[in-house]
């Protein structure tokens, strides 16, 4: 059953990826990119990585795709005929990947796992009920200092962007 779900998600991901490149209308291309993001999140769910699926939807489908659509709308991009041959490149790349997926699905080893996959054991012997809690505990215990450093770097970058934007706005008025 897992192979059936993987085959479905992989096939839709490959087809929608080709459509992202092949479609001439940028809005339709963005919609097929959205379909691809949702199916990648579905693939993460089949791998029992619910946190990654949620992050996939929030970050990529929610933020990056909206940013892409805003850029398309601001630039007023129409159908572009320069890229009409990109579907050949996409097919050249995606067809071997699709064939590889079929070969892996048909001849893959049948490994069985025992036990409940939702319960994970940390090195200290503590049982963690799901991977989101495990990521949170690891992030705020083992990797607390790098997490804080990354947040400070992002804060400094955000303050720098605001200062540069204010300087550009203030400089253009005088």
Give an overview of the whole structure.
It is a single chain. This protein has two domains: 1-108, Four Helix Bundle (Hemerythrin (Met), subunit A) (Up-down Bundle), CATH 1.20.120; 124-174. Helices cover 74% and strands 2% of the residues. The chain contains six helices and two strands. Strands 1-2 form a two-stranded antiparallel sheet. A hairpin with a 5-residue loop joins strand 1 (120-121) and strand 2. Helix 1 packs antiparallel against helix 2.
Oligomer description: single chain
Q: What is the number of strand segments? A: 2
Query: Strands of the largest sheet, in order across it?
Result: 1-2
Spatial separation of the terminal alpha carbons: 67 Å
What ranges have pLDDT less than 50 throughout 5 or more consecutive residues?
A: 111-118
Q: What is the residue-mean pLDDT, rounded to a whole number?
A: 76
Helix content: over 70%
Radius of gyration: 22 Å
Going by CATH, the architecture of the largest domain would be: Up-down Bundle
- Whole-number count of domains: 2
CATH fold call of the largest domain: Four Helix Bundle (Hemerythrin (Met), subunit A)
Structural class: mainly alpha
Taken in chain order, the helices and strands follow as HHHHEEHH
What's the CATH class of the largest domain, please? Mainly Alpha
Question: Largest beta sheet, briefly?
Answer: 2 strands, antiparallel
**Morphology:** flat
Q: Please tally the helical runs, counting DSSP H or I stretches of 4 or more residues.
A: 6
Please state roughly what percent of the residues sit in beta strands, choosing from under 5%, 5-15%, 15-25%, 25-35%, 35-45% or over 45%: under 5%
By CATH, the superfamily of the largest domain comes out as NADH-ubiquinone/plastoquinone oxidoreductase chain 6, subunit NuoJ
């Amino acid at each position: 059953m897992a192979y059936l779900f993987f085959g479905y998600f992989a096939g839709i991901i490959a087809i929608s990826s080709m459509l992202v490149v092949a479609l001439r209308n940028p809005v339709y291309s963005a919609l097929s990119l959205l379909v691809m993001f949702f199916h990648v999140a579905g693939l993460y769910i089949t791998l029992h990585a619910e946190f990654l699926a949620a992050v996939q939807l929030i970050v990529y489908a929610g933020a990056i795709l909206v940013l892409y659509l805003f850029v398309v709308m601001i630039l007023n991009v129409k159908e572009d005929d320069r890229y009409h041959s990109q579907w050949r490149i996409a097919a050249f790349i995606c067809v071997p990947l699709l064939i590889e997926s079929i070969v892996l699905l048909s001849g893959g080893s049948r490994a069985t796992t025992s036990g409940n996959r939702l319960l994970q054991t940390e090195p200290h012997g503590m049982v963690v009920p799901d991977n989101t809690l495990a990521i949170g505990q690891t992030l705020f215990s083992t990797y607390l200092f790098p997490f804080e450093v990354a947040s400070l770097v992002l804060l400094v970058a955000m303050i720098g962007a605001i200062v540069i934007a204010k300087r550009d706005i203030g400089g253009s008025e005088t």
